[in-house]
Amino acid sequence: MPESSAAAVDRPTDQEAGFLILHRLLPDVGMANVFWVFECAESFRTEDFQTCLTWLVRRHPRLRTYFPTEAGEPARRTLGPDAVRVTVEQLDAPEDPTEAARRFGARPIDITSGMPVAAAVIHGSDRTSPLVVLVIHHVAVDADATGVLLDELDTCFRSVTSGAVPPSEVVQPPSTREVVAPSEDSVDFWRETLDGVDSRAMMLDVQRDLEPRTFAAQTLYHQASAEATASARALCASLGMTRNMVLMTAFYALMSAHRAGPDLTIGTLVRWQDEADEGPSVDHRTSTLALRIRADPACGFRELAGEVAQGLFEGLVHADVPFEQVVPALRTVQGGWRVPVFRQVFNYLPVGTDLAPGSGPLLSFGRWLPMGKNLIRYELEFNISDRPDTMLFSTVYSTELFDEPAVVELMRRFERILIAANRNPDVTLSEL
């Protein structure tokens, strides 16, 4: 990148530095890619989409930020809006355009030398509609931000194709938390809380006991039954807890039911908000918490929920220590696993985050074709999102460790746990 086109902002945050480390360790794997595939509408023109994508990148500084090495140290630099040139690649894949789209979505983005955005139009046979693939590196966006981006891209495309001119204003750079040393109290909290974690105790009885050689994964979608959805909501009322707390408790109970524990640690994402924000922001504002709970088989669901709520609260209070900074200081016991603290991740996603096939919107430039993640750093990732009348699961699992029928049964058993706990909140984990 020419020096005249960018200005140094500051040094990367700990979270951004973590993405840079991941990039250096896995330069040929798009582990941190977030991508969407759309089946093009009949009126689709590549030049219109390129115009809109360029407008979107110019509008949001996060999409113009990259991380070069300067004087031997990583730096964060942001291109000026006028320096942005977005290219939409044209690819031919007459045999299997869907697989070509998946491969493009997994192609690594080099955030040390260019913007964290890539796009392509993939042409299949004459009988099929082209596919649009949009890829953004996770360093720039989280789940909330992706919803903002797709909405703005859709609005811009409608304007351009109707002959209107999209707005030219540039969104101000997003606020970032001041980079300061974490408090000694928080560092001590995590060292004490996670000291001696043994990830071997978190292996489930439905997975293979081996060390994965790749990050290969598959995503399964599942819609919860009406009874399970109603049970989750009733438990929130009867226990006086949030949906996230109740569902996370059910996940711990699920792990216990499959012979993990009783000392259990899972990873979960939390999002920080800047008080100066006046609306939705395009940024990556999530961080990982490692929540350690003791799930004794004789413990009741209500009691376990209290432990989960307390653990989540304490974790949030001490969230000023980035997870990436905590791990090197820990004394852990593990069997060579890549993440030495936890194997499983549970996320309660915001309302409106589309997860399942059929729920994807028809945007002005095409219909979303959910592909799901095909790479995973962990063993199992449970994502649950609310809808007005149901809950949607998006479960990502290592294909080296799990078979599909086992993962399907995990999601169904999760529902049965919610139903049983609603009937008797004091039912013990061993009974579940």
Question: What keywords describe this structure?
Answer:
432 residues, alpha+beta, Chloramphenicol Acetyltransferase, 2 domains, 10 helices, 22% strand
Estimate the mean pLDDT confidence. 85
Q: Helical percent range?
A: 25-40%
- First-residue to last-residue Cα separation: 58 Å
Quote the beta fraction: 15-25%
CATH topology of the largest domain: Chloramphenicol Acetyltransferase
Radius of gyration: 22 Å
- Largest sheet: number of strands, sense, barrel closure: 6 strands, mixed
CATH superfamily of the largest domain: Nonribosomal peptide synthetase, condensation domain
Described by the principal axes of the CA atoms, the overall outline is: globular
User: Which oligomeric state applies?
Assistant: single chain
Extract low-pLDDT stretches.
Answer: 1-8, 352-359
The H-and-E topology, N to C, reads as EHEHEEEEEHEEHHEHHEEHHEEEEEH
Structure characterization notes:
A hairpin with a 2-residue loop joins strand 4 and strand 5 (73-74). Helix 6 (226-239) packs across helix 7, helix 7 (243-257) crosses helix 8 (301-317) and helix 7 packs across helix 10. The protein has helices at 14-25, 46-59, 97-105, 143-161, 184-194, 226-239, 243-257, 301-317, 323-326, 404-423, and strands at 6-10, 33-40, 65-66, 69-70, 73-74, 76-79, 88-92, 117-123, 131-137, 217-223, 263-271, 286-294, 344-349, 362-363, 366-368, 380-386, 391-398. The protein has 2 domains: 3-161, Chloramphenicol acetyltransferase-like domain (Chloramphenicol Acetyltransferase), CATH 3.30.559.10; 185-423, Nonribosomal peptide synthetase, condensation domain (Chloramphenicol Acetyltransferase, 2-Layer Sandwich), CATH 3.30.559.30. The chain is 31% helix and 22% strand. It contains 10 helices and 17 strands. The protein is an alpha+beta fold.
